Amino acid sequence: MTTTTYRTAPGRTIDVGGVTYAYRELGPKGGVPVVFLNHLAATLDNWDPRVVDGFAAKHHVIAINYRGVGSSAGKTRTTVEDMARDAIAVIRALGHDRVDLQGFSLGGMVSQAVVQLDPQLVRKLILTGTGPAGGVGIDKVTRLSLLDTARGLLTFKDPKTYLFFTRTPNGKREAAAFLKRLKERKDDRDKAIAVPAFRAQLKAIHTWGTQKPADLSRVTIPVFIANGDEDRMVPTSNSHDMAKRFTNSELAIYPDAGHGGVFQYHDRFVAQALEFLAK
């Protein structure tokens, strides 16, 4: 059994096709692992430890860095589909031919592409704070991200304060609590994302937001979709849209919550996700 806390899970690497990918794993080995695919500008240190530990209490969890992000080597991909191909290659190189995916934001887009490229690989799909190809407002993520990054610099706050949470008193409290949790890991922290990698990911998201919508009705595996009711980055309407278009889906929308609703409501989200995976 690997360690059961994300705060102390050792950083690991694997060479796939001449590229070194960074990842962390924890939770009980055996069964179908849950692979976590991360958001724009995120490294392994950006996963809420309460969410990861919650999953790892019951499941083998693997969190993977994209190519060129954090401690992973190589040049960052500029399309969601190429990120998905890399994710598939890493998962199979780790010895898994059947996984569940938990994709947040950009990770949810990559997860959808993984299912379309390699349908037999994925048993169940969890999509959080994300949207479909061609989804409403996804083409505006670049502008919003850059504006709120500048806003964060001017106010000496982490941009996720504005991008992930509402500006209500409750939202502000939850933002502070979330950012504090991200600092719990003191040793063996990941490298911050480089500016060129951030730009490459923005390009990938913009392309995803402007491309032709996929036929989600062809995806027949179970899908759990969760988001806040006031997502500014990937508008919440996309979550409702996906829930209607997937053949077998469940939807959870959290009140007074933004893009990071699953972190704000981590207890509720983890409980619902574990119930979904256990069915």
Automatic annotation (TrEMBL):
InterPro entries: AB_hydrolase, AB_hydrolase_1, AB_hydrolase_fold. It comes from the Bacteria. Keywords: Hydrolase. GO terms for molecular function: hydrolase activity. Residues 33-262 form the AB hydrolase-1 domain. PANTHER family: AB HYDROLASE-1 DOMAIN-CONTAINING PROTEIN, HYDROLASE, ALPHA/BETA FOLD FAMILY PROTEIN. This is Alpha/beta hydrolase. It comes from Aeromicrobium ginsengisoli.
